[in-house]
Amino acid sequence: MVDRLANSEANSKRIGVVEACFGTAGQPLAIPGRVLIGEGVLTKLCRKRPKARQFFLFNDILVYGNIVIQKKKYNKQHIIPLESVTIDTVEDEGDLRNGWLIKTPTKSFAVYAATATEKSEWMSHISKCVSDLLEKSGKSPTGEHAAVWVPDSEATVCMRCQKIKFNPVNRRHHCRKCGFVVCGPCSEKKFLLPSQSSKPVRVCEFCYKQLSTGGTLPARSDSYSRSEFSSNNISDDDDDDDSSD
């Protein structure tokens, strides 16, 4: 089915519409063999709070961006190669329902659909695209992925020292290795994580010691409990998905 659509006029027009919605700030999306499988609005769990994002699933990439004008204009385009993607379901908790994790070596995050049916369809289509790509390329599934960041609102105190409370002076930071929300003193070190950046990135003291000595880091469940930390929205960065801390 995908192969038949690859060179169809209807597919080319649909991809052209997506390109036009992102404008000149977006990357060109039309290449031979690329097919737009589906699209829709998903709620992405961002650093400060959940936000609606427009997602487009192609047979080889996943594209998403901020909604400026629905079905007309999007910005901050992100492109994720599907070969590097793994997905895992997320248990329903509170208002966040019908979710799953999108995990890659560079970045990992949670998204939520409006209904259980929509979630099932998204996960099924993504899994099929990834499976087809790996079968064609002969590659193995990606083994390592970036940690899912714990949202700012989940931590009122440093998740490592459990002592420093966050406020406008004691700002929140994220360890790039474990994804924990940590204080400045607990995250003064940097370490090179090639899959995430060509430069050393911020890591917490615990992860730095483990990485420096070649030790094995204990696995962290990406399905953290929202009730484990009480809510507080004070943060050192804005709501941009790619905030530097």
TrEMBL record:
A cellular-component GO term for this protein: early endosome membrane
PH domain boundaries: 35-131
Function: May play a role in early endosome fusion upstream of RAB5, hence regulating receptor trafficking and fluid-phase transport. Enhances cellular sensitivity to TNF-induced apoptosis.
Cell compartments where the protein resides: Early endosome membrane; Endoplasmic reticulum
Designated gene of the protein: LOC109105915
Protein name: Pleckstrin homology domain-containing family F member 2
Superkingdom to which the source organism belongs: Eukaryota
This protein's record includes keyword Protein transport: yes
Topology with respect to the bilayer: Peripheral membrane protein
Pfam families listed in its UniProt record: FYVE, PH
UniProt main location, coarse: membrane
Record keywords, A-Z: Endoplasmic reticulum, Endosome, Membrane, Metal-binding, Protein transport, Transport, Zinc, Zinc-finger
Disordered: annotated segments: 216-245
The species this protein was found in: Cyprinus carpio
Domain FYVE-type: 152-212
GO BP term (any one): endosome to lysosome transport
Listed InterPro entries: PH-like_dom_sf, PH_domain, PH_domain-containing_F, PH_Phafin, PLEKHF2_FYVE, Znf_FYVE, Znf_FYVE-rel, Znf_FYVE_PHD
